[in-house]
Amino acid sequence: MDNKRLVAVAVVCISVMSTLGSPVLAEKSKQESKNEQTKLESEKKTLEEEARKQDQEVQQLEQKLDDHYKEMNEQASLLAETEYKLELQEKKVKNLLRSMYTENYLYPLTQLFDANNLNDFVERYDFTIFFLNEQQRAVTELKETKQTAQEKKKTLADLGAKQDQVLKETQQKQEDLEAKITKLGKDIRTLKETEDQTELSDRDRTLIAPHDKVAKGSGQYMWPVGSGGGTITDTFGTRGGSHKGLDIAAPPKTPILAADSGEVSMVSSGGGYGNCIIISHGGGIQTRYAHISSGTILVKPGQSVSKGQQIAGVGNTGNVRGARGGYHLHFEVMINGVATNPSRYISR
């Protein structure tokens, strides 16, 4: 075989491989996306299980906080009693000192030396000893009560610090866990949107092909939401290139209109698109209308539709997000099954 024929065969092989390889690569990308989604969902389940355990720990911590609170109340009550007792004892010591001063018992020996006789001496001695014992007892009790009060104040302060620490740890754990679960939820939702808003599968192409052959569109496309209404909330190519259409937010059941004449090639439900209609306009061009409100679909496969004809109502089925409950129309323009920027074809 000469060089020219080898080159020709190589070109043909490369062309065939390229043609076959594209769907294979697309399928591989889908599988990788599914694997990543499964991994994230598994991780989310693990975190949710951790969250359940965390809830149990939080309940135990809350019980501990209640115990701290009760103990703090008890200690506060005991402290109040101790401080009251301390106040009485301080008054008692002051009264003793005042009495000793009034009765001139601040100097016991002087009292004893001033005795008139032995009986007087004994009486003065007994009374002096009584005063001194009372004074010593009162002072000792006063010191002990002051020490007890200081210890109870320290115990109360320690309990308060422990309570604050437990509260801080509990709040931090909950915030960290919620942040992890929220992030995983966003990652999973993005993957689902990426997976659900892909190019047409080979099965879909097979279903659409017969309708595309007989469909006849004008090639001029109109705004797909009734009376030019709605607000654009997302455009083609966002979310890392995974968003394949134009999102138009509108109130529930706002009329969805056929952007051009053609034939309904698919009506489906479930998945990320929710309730969905695909219209073929001929020449390999299709438009997709997704997230349709349940019970509002007015067409069926094989039915011819006119440009501007109402085919359904705006809803929030499938994977939706955003304000007002996520009600919007996800609108796509596909050429030979590949999504392209709808803004090139429609305007208000």
UniProtKB/TrEMBL annotation:
**Classification via CDD domains:** M23_peptidase (cd12797)
Q: Which residues form a coiled coil?
A: 132-194
What keywords are annotated for this sequence in UniProt?
Coiled coil, Hydrolase
Region named Disordered: 26-55
Q: Name one Pfam family in it.
A: Peptidase_M23
Please note every region of biased composition (Basic and acidic residues): 27-55
Q: Which PANTHER family match?
A: MUREIN HYDROLASE ACTIVATOR ENVC (PTHR21666:SF270), PEPTIDASE-RELATED (PTHR21666)
Q: What is this protein called?
A: Murein DD-endopeptidase MepM/ murein hydrolase activator NlpD
**Organism name:** Croceifilum oryzae
Q: Source taxonomy lineage? A: Bacteria, Bacillati, Bacillota, Bacilli, Bacillales
